[in-house]
Design brief:
Length: 196
């Protein structure tokens, strides 16, 4: 008869994970579909809520870049026209990844403009054209507000044990916003001295 295999002791859960793992994985949180990814529905519901906030903010930033791409004028028209469209494309790519992550976790991604407008932290810009310096300052302010939300969401999902969401938020999402904020700051009149 073979000797019994010694099982490695189970790694204790962190306090944060224990607090959020009170719901058995098989018992679903309301509005959260079942997923077999070893995360409780309560943890996934928390991540979905945080990711949908970042989704709304990212969709708003994406659209703000396209607005400015179309409406920019003045002596820096050409480089700003191109830069805004590059950043728009990068934000659009983030929107798709965040939206799919929400669905992957069993949630329902926020998608339509009225729902986005209701929760985004980015202030609504005027419908009319703004001068290019106002556009840049608006974008810089929007990035800082969104980056603050991203950092909080990354912290929350990390502490809850959702490594995938934490990785997405603190990797691609945060670093794209930090990079874009830097590029935008360099085009401000005070940029080379105040934002070097
Ligand atoms: Fe265009």
């Amino acid at each position: 008869m073979p000797a019994p295999v010694a099982l490695a002791p189970r790694r204790p859960r962190t306090p944060a994970t224990t607090a959020l793992a009170g719901t058995h994985p098989a018992r679903e949180h309301p509005g959260i579909a079942r997923r077999s990814i070893a995360l409780s529905s309560a943890t996934r519901a928390l991540s979905v809520e945080r990711l949908n906030q970042i989704m709304a903010d990212t969709m708003t930033l994406r659209d703000l870049y396209k607005k400015h791409h179309w409406q920019v004028n003045g002596p820096n028209f050409y480089p700003l026209h191109l830069l805004y469209d590059k950043h728009y494309t990068e934000q659009a790519a983030l929107v798709d990844v965040i939206g799919e992550r929400v669905q992957m976790l069993g949630g329902t991604t926020i998608a339509m403009a009225p729902d986005v407008a209701a929760i985004t932290v980015v202030p609504r810009p005027p419908r009319e054209r703004e001068d290019s310096v106002s556009q840049l300052r608006r974008l810089l302010d929007a990035h800082e507000k969104v980056i603050d939300e991203i950092r909080q969401a990354a912290r929350t999902t990390g502490e809850a044990g959702d490594a995938g969401s934490n990785d997405l938020l603190s990797g691609a999402v945060l670093q794209t916003n930090e990079m874009q904020s830097w590029f935008i700051s360099q085009h401000l009149p005070e940029g080379p001295t105040a934002h070097d």
